[in-house]
From TrEMBL:
It holds the Pfam family GSHPx. Keywords: Oxidoreductase, Peroxidase, Selenocysteine, Signal. This is Glutathione peroxidase. The keyword Signal applies. GO terms for biological process: response to oxidative stress. GO terms for molecular function: peroxidase activity. The active site is at C69. Belongs to the glutathione peroxidase family. The gene is LOC117238361. Residues 1-15 form the signal peptide. The keyword Hydrolase does not apply.
Length: 192
């Protein structure tokens, strides 16, 4: 990992074709006032601010991920397939946020997460491990839940909860962990 840091541009660490971006949102901590995901920023792994407004004009899929979950293999495989099919042709962007809040299924640190993602040949953006529920929940995730609440409450119930964001940065759909990424293709088509 340290060798990779020396070889890559300042601000990003890339393992194969994906970016690892730290998810310390500092732009809009008051998520209730946010108008879109573009009101948030993320710090790169080297501490540089990365505005989510960089995703303007792109349909985004935002998902909480874990490397040791029973849903991991299917979701990572299908997220890669979606990226391959739609990233260049339609501009789909996938933002994955590792989270260890569900049975400790993402126990590793940044190096372990990068190593896992490398083995999975991940091409989409991966952010620093965060909380998605509770007082320490990341502000972006508080915003996502506010915009698209769940069936039995707003909280995230498990790994691989998925939010679709349109080209204007608005959260337009929420899908539970049991929804496979490839089953969302028709949903994406509405927003491309």
């Amino acid at each position: 990992m340290n060798i990779l840091k020396l070889l890559l541009p300042v601000g990003f660490v890339q393992v194969r074709n994906f970016s690892v971006i730290a998810a310390t949102m500092s732009g809009n901590d008051n998520y209730k006032e946010a108008k879109s995901i573009y009101d948030f920023t993320a710090k790169s792994i080297k501490g540089e601010e990365v505005p989510l407004s960089n995703y303007k004009g792109h349909v985004c899929l935002i998902v909480n991920v874990a490397s040791k979950c029973g849903l991991t293999a299917t979701n990572y495989k299908q997220l890669n397939e979606l990226y391959d099919e739609y990233a260049d042709s339609k501009g789909l962007r996938i933002l994955a946020f590792p989270c260890n809040q569900f049975n400790g299924q993402e126990p590793g640190g940044t190096e372990e997460i990068c190593s896992f993602a490398d083995r999975q040949k991940v091409k989409f953006d991966i952010f620093e491990k965060i909380d998605v529920n509770g007082d320490k929940a990341h502000p972006l995730w508080k915003y996502l839940k506010k915009e698209q609440g769940g069936i039995l409450g707003d909280f995230i119930k498990w790994n691989f909860t998925k939010f679709i964001v349109n080209k204007e940065g608005k959260v337009v759909e929420r899908h539970g962990p049991n929804v496979d990424p490839n089953s969302l293709k028709n949903n994406f088509e509405k927003y491309f």
